[in-house]
């Protein structure tokens, strides 16, 4: 039987890659639900091709455009957050690929888990904000939770079938981004265009900037802590410019397991969709004879303090990770609109973290309240 798939965020980079893979495996999958934020034109193309049973548009104003561009006789339409929640829990779906960028994906993801769907999670922000709540629900429901981002996906593969007590540390690799060899003075002058020009990965705008500041690795440390349950002290970041190794796990006997592969997000997306099976990839295999070096460096926390703030937020716990994530989302948006400088992104995040009074063991409402508070604080600082 075909696996029935819902893609939350189908018009983004991960969503499009997911649909590309599904198009190459028509006997394995059926697309039953698609969602977008505002990209109506691309959603129309996807609806024409896949004929999903339901679609949702987060932006309610944009939803009004649907009738004029999409034949809706075969497709039910939802709008706003309520629409995403309903599609995430769609009765007919087997797998939910959660690819909504940023914190907007948190509540729909929780909805999918509560509906006992197999979830493939591409955006780290919901797991950073409310990882404990999400993973507690995963355990309660007994559902399958597979991270899609290349680094936690690699760790997931390395840990599969292993006893937790046999692990010494998790090693998250990082390319170092486009500014690894730039000075502070040079980074003070970088433009959005240069921040978006990642040397090895093709990604969306927000994650590309996060990679340039390296705050993405701080968020990935929190993400790995929440998903896999290891203490922050046993999670390390290693700069690996070639990006051939996507992360590693060191065991207590000294063995190190690593996942290697091409820098193409379709590989971890396919693994998450076909899990627990592996199927032939449409991509060319990695050519080891073209790899001239595998180098590793410690991260420069002085030049890239975003990574340090990730550890600090993780140690503070409670609502602090949600605050760091929210402040970063607003700061990145402002940088891309040229309202603040590149180095202001992490500076603004740190200022807001210092102002925040942590709420321990928060429920979902307290997490969302902290998220709103941090966004308001960030906007006020940017306005000043």
Account of the protein in words:
- The protein has 384 residues and is of the alpha/beta class.
- The chain has a domain at 3-147: NAD(P)-binding Rossmann-like Domain (Rossmann fold), CATH 3.40.50.720.
- Helices cover 46% and strands 15% of the residues.
- It has helices at residues 13-24, 40-50, 60-63, 66-69, 80-88, 106-114, 125-141, 150-159, 184-187, 192-195, 205-213, 215-228, 266-274, 305-316, 320-336, 344-355, 364-383; strands spanning 3-8, 29-36, 54-57, 76-79, 95-98, 118-121, 145-147, 167-174, 235-239, 245-251, 256-260.
- The strands form 2 sheets. A 7-stranded parallel beta sheet has the order 4-3-2-1-5-6-7, sandwiched between helices. It has a 4-stranded mixed beta sheet with strand order 9-8-10-11, with helices on one face.
- Strand 5, helix 6 and strand 6 form a beta-alpha-beta unit.
- Helix 6 (106-114) packs parallel to helix 7 (125-141), helix 14 (305-316) packs antiparallel against helix 15 and helix 15 runs antiparallel to helix 16 (344-355).
- The protein is globular.
- The termini are far apart.
- The mean pLDDT is 94.
Task: Summarize this structure as a short list of keywords or feature phrases.
seven-stranded parallel β-sheet, globular, 17 helices, Rossmann fold, four-stranded mixed β-sheet, single chain, 384 residues
